[in-house]
Amino acid sequence: MKNLKIITTGGTIDKLYFDDLSDYQIGKPIIGELLNTYHVGFDFEVVPLMKKDSIYITDEDRELIRQVIAKSDEQHFLITHGTDTMVDTARFLHGIEDKTIVLTGALTPARFNATDAIFNIGCAVAAVQTKPPGVWVIMNGLVWDPEHVRKNRKANRFEEV
Asked: Domain L-asparaginase N-terminal spans what residues (predicted)?
């Protein structure tokens, strides 16, 4: 992998909470800061495409993501995305040829002490380098084909369909 293009869309991974009533904003993407802190051995570019909770991501937003990937010279893409509609976006991106596209997110914000964000990002970086071209969802330490995964809100995890 020569270069990794990271597209950020918002979601819990970048949320900032302000009070006990769960008032939040989507903050500046944190993934670039994390990768720099860990001194990764590859070049990357962070493209902050939008700051949305995934329940507000539309097919027009998904088309924008698709166009950015299709027009890019890079072959490897990591997309940070809210978990509620991550699978929908992954399915929308199906069919982009000769690109490895990995979507990941977090069930708790990256800025929290007990977060799954850093683990999920690490798994996504490994997957984008080792999986063949196609679209993949990375959550809970597993690599999923978007056609065979869903978020189980009650269990607060992703599971096979």
From this structure: 4-154
β-sheet bridge partners, residue 50: none
pTM flag (> 0.70):
yes
Tokens at 40, concatenated: 């990764």
Long-range Cβ pairs for the range 154-159 (8 Å, 24+): 156/107, 157/107, 158/83
Domain count, the chain: 1
CB-based burial, 109-139: b 16+ in 10 Å, e otherwise:
bbeeeebbbbebbbbbbebbeebeebbbbbb
Which of 10, 15, 13 shows the shortest CA–CA distance to 119? 13
Q: Which domain holds residue 139?
A: 3-160
Give CA 7 to chain center in angstroms: 8
